[in-house]
Amino acid sequence: MFSNVGWGEILVLLIVGLLLIGPERLPGLIKEVQAVLLAVRNAVTQAREQLDGELGEDFREFSKPLKELNNVRQMGARGFITKTLLDGDESFLTPFDETKKELQDTANSLKTRGRGGVAPKKATAEPERVEITQQAEFGESRLQDDIPVQQAGGEVTQDLTDPKQQSGAWDDVI
């Protein structure tokens, strides 16, 4: 009943009791409070036993669906399906478990073969020069460096430190 009362709280109650009641009457008051608590505890126990005796069977029938609901909540989706659809027979689901295990074993063996066999080609920071094999519009093939866009980009760049070459300055707006 008082299981959540700590020793510090009991000590505070004793000190307050000493100050309010006094040291001569405090032991008698503690015994009276103890007797009242024991009487309340016994009354609750007797009431519980009486209700269990009179309504025990009805209460058990009422609490049975609640227990089943809690069991369904705790068992999860797979357990619920097994219980309701398969009447608790899990042998239907075991071929799926075996197939899953076989697939995992196969995947693991392929991973280990891939590690032990030819190593995958590592990416380099420098792109390789690739010759374009497809014929251009006039029938000649070009290297990747000869892309007209890159050439045009090199010609368009300008020196922005020189104020005469900067375009779009505020002087142009006014």
Automatic annotation (TrEMBL):
Source organism's superkingdom? Bacteria
One Gene Ontology biological process: protein transport by the Tat complex
Q: Where is the composition biased (Polar residues)?
A: 158-168
Q: What topology in the membrane does the UniProt record assign?
A: Single-pass membrane protein
Its Gene Ontology cellular component terms are:
TAT protein transport complex
Q: Does the keyword Transmembrane apply?
A: yes
Q: Region Disordered: which residues?
A: 107-174
Q: How does it assemble?
A: The Tat system comprises two distinct complexes: a TatABC complex, containing multiple copies of TatA, TatB and TatC subunits, and a separate TatA complex, containing only TatA subunits. Substrates initially bind to the TatABC complex, which probably triggers association of the separate TatA complex to form the active translocon.
User: Would you tell me the protein name for this molecule?
Assistant: Sec-independent protein translocase protein TatB
Gene behind the chain: tatB
